[in-house]
Amino acid sequence: MDWRRWRHAVKLDPARPLDPEVVRGLATTGTDALILGGSDGIRREAVFHLLGAARATGLPVAIEVSSEEAVVPGADWYLIPMVLNTRDPRWLVGAHREAFQNLHRIAPGIPVPWDRVVTVAYVVCNPDATVARVAAAVPPAGPDEVAAWTTVAERLLRADIVYIEYSGRFGDPAWVGAAAGAMRGARLFYGGGIGTAEQAAVMAARAHTVVVGNALYRPGGLECIRATVEGARRVRPGEGGEPIAAGGRLP
Amino acid sequence: MDWRRWRHAVKLDPARPLDPEVVRGLATTGTDALILGGSDGIRREAVFHLLGAARATGLPVAIEVSSEEAVVPGADWYLIPMVLNTRDPRWLVGAHREAFQNLHRIAPGIPVPWDRVVTVAYVVCNPDATVARVAAAVPPAGPDEVAAWTTVAERLLRADIVYIEYSGRFGDPAWVGAAAGAMRGARLFYGGGIGTAEQAAVMAARAHTVVVGNALYRPGGLECIRATVEGARRVRPGEGGEPIAAGGRLP
């Protein structure tokens, strides 16, 4: 399924060990896609093996290219993150420039599959998350700031995806609603702290796509994923109060 | 004339005094357009008056919105600069986010004319230029780095214009050629140190559009502009060695 139609995705961190049975079980949870990505300690070898396991589920697989080590052939999509609210331009475009300059070393002889490249503009909202520390994020002061970042992402950077990232805790629905209200054609992703059907429904009523990560790594992870899929499918984007543009414009 | 077809443009700095006769005279130089913009000391009052004088020439007029003070209605285009090679994310997206958040104060009741907004990704190459100091630029180490920045601008930021900025001195044609070789559909602008027909021809053989600024402010400025227009029209983009994609994709 095309990333423009995902309602629910599971994020797998190549740096965290996971029972192969659990990865296999994802095929039966009803989720739309798997995203391989993490903020720290990504190693190519681990990405390679996790990609194999993820592909075996038959689900669409995206790799989030947060470091050169995540450049591994064979994914359906390559998500290129840019952190909007960072203090360090390295996380916006600097590391990307270096990577393009070093492509001959990173992926010798392999052309960039531009038709599989999807740009993702992050607004990192939880100051306690690893990603906030690693990427030197300055969390927004309120929903107005989230909306303004969304406009920057949509109109100036022309990002494919705007990603409201709370990584590690459940976010403020009003902030996600503010982003929804500023959307014009990109897809709105929400991630962070979703562990129940109710939580999934709250955010899926505001964002196009909800991403569940940590819940999978706890005991009963697959059941938990199933519940969040069910919760996300109970609602439609825009039901949460803020109307949202359809999203998923074609390139 | 649409900005996607300009071969030659004149940049007028609202912070620098200019004889109104000289502005009027620009109508007869053969240039394609006027760009109002500067790096420092921009005041709304001055932009407003210069816009009036520029409009009176009958030429297309763009305002480069490098500060909130440059938000003045009545231009054909609004160029939104983003400095790729900056140390300070404020010059990439930070000031832009603040401006979107403060629109109700900056331009009360006036909707953003999105169909006139043109995004410009700058690579600032002359470390001695005011823009380099003001925008905390880290000049590229060589043509490979310029090419990689161009790819970031084209593929990740989807900028309308990639602008190789030498402001104040004539640049290295090889660096502009490196940018040209990496173009895919955006327009390549070159600015800096063009004062003769020959200099204009060298850069117009590599970039889609050459921008002439300082030359206008010297004695005999209008004759000098005429010479650079003639030089730019002698050649075609791509004749300088590096082939270049046509540029000017429609939104």
List keywords for this structure.
phospholipid biosynthesis (chains A, B); TIM Barrel; eight-stranded parallel barrel; alpha/beta; homodimer; 9 helices; 8 strands; globular; 251 residues
CATH-defined fold name of chain A: TIM Barrel
Order of strands, widest sheet of chain A:
1-2-3-4-5-6-7-8
Shape of chain A: globular
For the largest interface, the chains and their residue counts are:
A-B, 29 and 29 residues
The span between the termini of chain A is 16 Å
Biggest pleated-sheet summary of chain A: 8 strands, parallel, barrel
Which strand-content bin applies to the residues of chain A?
15-25%
How many domains of chain A? 1
Structural class of chain A: alpha/beta
Tally of DSSP helical segments of chain A = 9
Catalytic activity (chains A, B): sn-glycerol 1-phosphate + all-trans-heptaprenyl diphosphate = 3-heptaprenyl-sn-glycero-1-phosphate + diphosphate
Keywords (chains A, B): Lipid biosynthesis, Lipid metabolism, Magnesium, Metal-binding, Phospholipid biosynthesis, Phospholipid metabolism, Transferase
Organism (chains A, B): Thermaerobacter marianensis (strain ATCC 700841 / DSM 12885 / JCM 10246 / 7p75a)
Enzyme class (chains A, B): transferase
